[in-house]
Amino acid sequence: MEFKDIPWKDVVIDTKEFTIFNDGVPVTPGHELIVPKENSFRVISICMRTAYTRGAEVVRTTDATGYNIGVNCGLSAGQTVMWPHVHLIPRYDGDMEDPRGGIRHVIPDRGNYKTSPHYKDVKLD
Questions:
Q1: C-alpha distances in angstroms, 16 versus 13, 32, 46, 72, 95?
Q2: I need a surface site. Which of 24, 57, 74, 106 has the fewest CB within 10 A?
Q3: pLDDT average, residue stretch 113-117
Q4: What residues does each domain of the chain span?
């Protein structure tokens, strides 16, 4: 993949193995994409580790209070650029009414397992 073919142009960091871009349509302030230069498990693993490390740094150095790391794999999972990339999404107190469930919110009404009717038979205590 040629980096000229991707829609993100605002480079934050460029290394031999990956490039970090600001997301063109950020979910929250500071949303970044860590994009491997090689589609291999080794380099994607480096991107995941980088997202984890950068997320912790964002929490330490900004007003973010948490972060999500995500990868969309396939059209049914919402992938729109068919090249692997890792999303780092800083989270902020109050950025949504009730964030419990985290990544489960990718399917409407499935996020909060304590209040969603989809989990009514699940014993939580």
A1: 10, 18, 11, 23, 34
A2: 74
A3: 68
A4: 3-93, 98-125
